[in-house]
Design a protein that fits this description.
Length: about 200
């Protein structure tokens, strides 16, 4: 199938990839836009992985205040340049992240931020739950790992399901942004305020 400019335009609108990349992806997939989109997404994710080592020292602090002014969130998201920090895509990403913090109540950015004593307390509670079940140690270890995975998915922002798309995690959302923006993007920190809520 011959690749037309309309096909390239459609793929470009959908993915944000360059014209030549869109043309090459359409040629490789025989003009199948869905397959070309997936191909570009995989290539973008590979490119995004390379960018995560770069220093992200610019960015923006994004507020979100829920209607009624009883719930708010602030999130600091960093990128490499002030140029990208001012783009619509980056601003939209930071707004989505602030809304995620307000809605999903994460406690930490990533699993690396979870204090060791909190992890130990979680593991101890899981072991206590399974007391008397006479499971082999390796089985108990796998169960604890599974429960910890669920704990991270509930409490660590990067591992939470995206509130607008449960098929995606926040890390997936950020990785896609890295691929599209061409710069490393890092969530540095956040805070959440709710009337009457304990810290």
């Amino acid at each position: 199938m011959a690749v037309t400019t309309d096909m390239i335009r459609e793929l470009r609108d959908e993915t944000g990839a360059g014209v030549l990349d869109c043309k090459r992806a359409l040629e490789e997939t025989g003009g199948d836009i869905a397959a070309a989109t997936e191909l570009l997404r995989r290539q973008g994710l590979a490119a995004a992985a390379k960018k995560t080592e770069r220093v992200a020292s610019d960015g923006r602090i994004e507020p979100y205040v829920h209607p009624g002014n009883r719930l708010a969130a602030l999130v600091e998201v960093n990128c490499e340049t002030d140029f990208v920090a001012r783009t619509e895509e980056f601003i939209a990403l930071t707004h989505e992240l602030a809304m995620q913090v307000a809605a999903a109540k994460p406690r930490w950015v990533s699993r690396d931020d979870v204090p060791a004593e909190v992890l130990e307390a979680e593991k101890a509670s899981y072991i206590e739950e399974m007391a008397g079940q006479n499971k082999p140690p390796q089985v108990m270890e796998r169960i604890i790992e599974g429960k910890l995975g669920k704990f991270y998915a509930e409490n660590c922002l990067l591992e939470q399901e995206y509130i607008r798309d449960s098929e995606q995690t926040i890390q997936d959302l950020i990785t896609a942004a890295i691929a599209k923006l061409g710069e490393n993007v890092v969530v540095r920190r956040f805070c959440r305020f709710q009337i009457g809520a304990e810290d």
